[in-house]
Amino acid sequence: MKEEIKNATRKTFLELSEYLSGEQIYYFVLTTTGELLSPGHSVWTEKLLDKVTKNQIKPNENYNDLKSDLKWSYADSPLFYYGKKHFNLVENIFLKCPNLFDLTEKEYIKEFDNRINAMTNALIELDREGIFGIEDKRKRIMINVEINPCDESNIERAKKLNPNGGIVEEWLSEFKE
């Protein structure tokens, strides 16, 4: 499972990077539901955020407030699920997994941990390969595995997956608000 997530994520991230023509990606997440279904993925760049904010702004709406609302929203990115084709095998693997709600509590915890750890470890390994950048460039992108609706475990994964002192600090401070 982890290897397929890793391969799909690598292909997707590289395709997104090419599509964005070198724009700095500041947010890249694998996202899933509380049932830990097959992960989706989302990305934001500052240029994309400005464009979406300008397109969605309504009369009498505050531009900066809207921009702030969109900034970390996986679902509002027009690139949510961009490159979905790379995740077809991952989806098939997840479809073969047991329904979490048909399991005993002990089985549920084990299956839940296996799925979330597969996603998290895939990102860790890709990060070690340098796919998200190195040194200063790496500090400018926040990666995560997010459970939605938001859950406190997102914070722990964000801390685990990102270097201290980078853009993740901004995400953490806004998450707590």
Give the topology, please:
Blueprint: H1 2-19, E1 25-33, E2 40-45, H2 46-56, H3 63-71, H4 88-95, H5 105-129, H6 135-139, E3 142-148, H7 153-161, H8 168-176
Parallel strand pairs: 1-3
Antiparallel strand pairs: 1-2
Helix pairs in contact: 1-5, 2-3
Structure notes:
The protein is 53% helix and 12% strand. The chain is α+β, with helices and mostly antiparallel strands and 177 residues long. It has one domain (2-176). Strands 2-1-3 form a three-stranded mixed beta sheet. Helix 1 packs across helix 5 (105-129).
Q: How many domains in all?
A: 1
Main sheet specs: 3 strands, mixed
DSSP summary, beta strand count: 3
| Beta content | 5-15%
Please trace the helix and strand order, writing H or E for each element: HEEHHHHHEHH
Q: What does the average pLDDT come to?
A: 95
Helical run tally? 8
Strand arrangement within the widest β-sheet reads 2-1-3
Query: What integer value in Å does the Rg equal?
Result: 16 Å
Helix content: 40-55%
